Amino acid sequence: MILIIDDDIAVRTSLLLLLQQAGYEAAGVSTPEEALLSIRANPPALVLLDLNFSIDTSGKEGMTLLKQIRQQQAALPVILITGWGSIALAVQGMKLGANDFISKPWNNDNILQSVKTLLQLQHKTTHHTRKQLDGLYNFQHIIGEDPKMMDILETIGRVAATDASILIMGESGTGKELIAEAIHQNSTRRNKPFIKVNLGGISTSLFESEMFGHVRGAFTDARYDRTGRFEMAHKGTIFLDEIGDLDSSSQVKLLRVLQDRTYEVLGSSRTKVVDTRVVCATNKNLHEMVALGTFREDLLYRINLITIRLPALRERPKDIPLLVNGFIHNLREMYSRPALNVTSDAMKWLQQLPLPGNIRQLKNLVERAILVSKTDQLDTAAFRSQLELSPVKTGNIQLPGVGTITLEELEVGMIRKAMMFHHNKIAKAAVSLGITRSALYRRLDKYNIPYDETSD
Question: Which fold has domain 2-120?
Fold first, then answer.
């Protein structure tokens, strides 16, 4: 049963009708006192709570009731209902344990989507073996049997079928994009578009055009209509990578579309509705950024109904042999060397490395070792040679030894080297770097590395 708590009879009646037509059992009460009595007598599966009662618009009554509900039922899903002007109030409610918030005037589909998602997330998690998970879900591209990764796969399997917003956090190279793709592939939207957006590579001036599109003549260089990323992702999933790099003005624009599920194409006054699942990723600590005032708290609560924290590779060393063998399996065919193998001593040595670049760095290390090794039996020396402290010259730039440069500088250097080695062929450079072509394009744009779009 879903309990609606609102003093406005019109709101209660509207929500009761909406939920009952959708097949839910629902009831409504008008006062905090009635609400608490109802929750004690007949604990509901979910609560829709308006923050304002009677003539009081401060939200204090709603906040007090939320605290009391949490004291009675700590795990009971609660959706707050508030006006757009009271989003700050809703954020306070999220801190007190609310699960989601809906703005007035609401969209019926959005409310039903939120209700469905939160009810599905209440289902208890069943622990499976990796073989069982592979039988239940499409996780074929994710390598790992570490308990931390198993918990993540269980979570993905449980939430993929919902429309819950998901925030993936983790260091660079931990596989955030791979996890986002797995969420999409195991969702009901799997046959619809999966649109990847590198927010760190979009300038403030181009944000609206890139995300929402523009019509011809909207600005000086707008010579043709452009379809925005949200429109491309309609009915599918949009993956907002590096969301921690988004500037403050763009954060506001993103919040509005995530909140209202509507947007306007630049240069047009016609409002468009978007139906898309939102998955975000970052290697930054957004909570620290909120404390520093560089990331909006209301946006953070809007994007992280579910948070997935990917462990660094050094935190799951037992998965390193699985990953290395997976890389070797693919590279045998790529380099026509079917006898490629790694010695047991070399594998143990790899498990001791700090690998600040995580899976991406490990893959690059394995491939470089194959390229320089004259034998198919890769020993410790073959890998150690790629981690020497002597500087490595890459075209016009010089990469210092490990520990003397940042990961970003190392990435830029490796990209330049790959582009030079493969004569600017995007597909070949991407394969050698262990990333997709779209990922390489994003990094070329991010680091302002010139390339010829026709060279691929």
Answer: Rossmann fold (3.40.50)
Angstrom distance (rounded) from CA 48 to CA 42: 15
Domains of the chain, residue spans: 2-120, 149-311, 312-387, 391-456
Class of domain 312-387 (CATH, top level): mainly alpha
Are the folds of 2-120 and 149-311 the same? yes
- Class of the 149-311 domain? alpha beta
Query: pLDDT tens across 310-355, in order?
Result: 999 999 999 999 999 999 998 888 888 999 999 999 999 999 998 8
Residues 6 or more apart whose Cβ sits within 8 Å of residue 360: 172, 173, 433, 434, 435
| Peptide bond just before 105 cis, omega within 30 deg | yes
Give, in order, the Cα–Cα distances in Å from 340 to each of 19, 112, 325, 337, 436.
60, 54, 10, 6, 24
Identify the CATH assignment for 391-456 out of 3.40.1280.10, 3.90.180.10, 3.40.50.2000, 1.10.10.60.
1.10.10.60
Summarize the confidence of residues 69-85 as an average pLDDT: 85
DSSP labels for 46-102? EEEEES-BTTB-SSHHHHHHHHHHHHH-TT--EEEEEEGGGHHHHHHHHHTT--EEE
266-298 pLDDT, tens per residue? 888 888 988 999 999 999 999 999 999 999 999
DSSP state of 276: -
Separation CA 230–CA 236 (nearest Å): 9
How far is the C-alpha of 169 from the C-alpha of 41, rounded, in Å?
40
